[in-house]
Input
Amino acid sequence: DTGVSQDPRHKITKRGQNVTFRCDPISEHNRLYWYRQTLGQGPEFLTYFQNEAQLEKSRLLSDRFSAERPKGSFSTLEIQRTEQGDSAMYLCASSVSRDSSGWETQYFGPGTRLLVL
Amino acid sequence: AQSVTQLGSHVSVSEGALVLLRCNYSSSVPPYLFWYVQYPNQGLQLLLKYTTGATLVKGINGFEAEFKKSETSFHLTKPSAHMSDAAEYFCAVRVYGGSQGNLIFGKGTKLSVKP
Output
């Protein structure tokens, strides 16, 4: 079990450019979540996959954002036409519906820090 | 709808002193509560969780939290602070309903430990 991994760890881009982040969940975790964390705030939910199906999207996820999870394994989060307000840490978490405790626990990756200039 | 309030954005304690980080929640259904810790430029690490059963929950690194339904609280404590405990701590509640399982987080409390 290597934990949740995210790539890249840091990304600097210019306003208007597109960026894509990748998340590799813990193997056999069927649920995958994306959160956004801005400075001084707790993480905020963006979207959620169960296997390859995207089941929930937050109102924070504008039409410039798109997420995929092909084949129910890794996931990508793309931001088109980036804006300075998109600067944040993007966190990925994975889980199984019921773990050994009988409940769901989300395990977080190290995050991708995005800076839009 | 669920929500979480963490009282105090910054808490400073001396090494060896008691750590108390406050969390109050709002939930119309039995809550499922978590504490996570975040070290600088890192993701979140699970400290402990409350689901059902025993209201005093023990976690990693000597932390524990007590679920008090009457006070709608889930405060995090550690008897003796260590320098390595300096980090940001987040309380979270799991969303119920439909296919949702996402967490709602408080704004976090940054813990400083003085030598």
Remarks:
- Chain B touches chain A at residues 4, 9, 32, 34, 36, 41-46, 49, 51, 90, 92, 94-95, 98-108 (CB under 8 Å).
